[in-house]
Design a protein that fits this description.
The chain is an all-alpha fold. Helices cover 69% and strands 0% of the residues.
């Protein structure tokens, strides 16, 4: 099975790349707009945990044997879609106190003493 990449596909990939850059800028703006330094630290620690969880999910997905699966062995579009899903899952896990792995809380606790108002 061969995959033909058209100019529409290339345009879509470039648009996704721009959305990722804009998404990162949006996160930065949310952190900077927080009221004080401790609120910024809280947001940064949660964002760090979400990045950690996202990477963990991605690595876990790479360990799964995909031979004979319903999506086939290698699907570049599916891999791109999964990266967005893992990113959202990472943010959801990190921002929910019931599902958080506790990394954000630990970072906040350790760094709080160094934050000056």
């Amino acid at each position: 099975m061969s995959i033909n990449i058209t100019t529409a596909d290339t345009d879509a990939i470039q648009m996704m790349s721009k959305q990722t850059i804009n998404g990162e800028q949006e996160i930065y703006n949310k952190i900077k707009s927080a009221g004080n330094k401790k609120e910024q630290l809280d947001k940064v620690s949660k964002e760090f945990e979400s990045l950690f969880v996202t990477k963990m999910l991605s690595v876990m997905d790479n360990t799964v044997d995909k031979t004979g699966g319903i999506f086939g062995e290698k699907q570049p579009y599916l891999d791109t879609f999964k990266s967005f899903i893992f990113q959202e899952m990472g943010r959801d896990i990190a921002n929910n106190p019931r599902t958080s792995i506790g990394l954000a809380k630990q970072i906040y606790t350790q760094m709080e003493k160094y934050v000056q108002e």
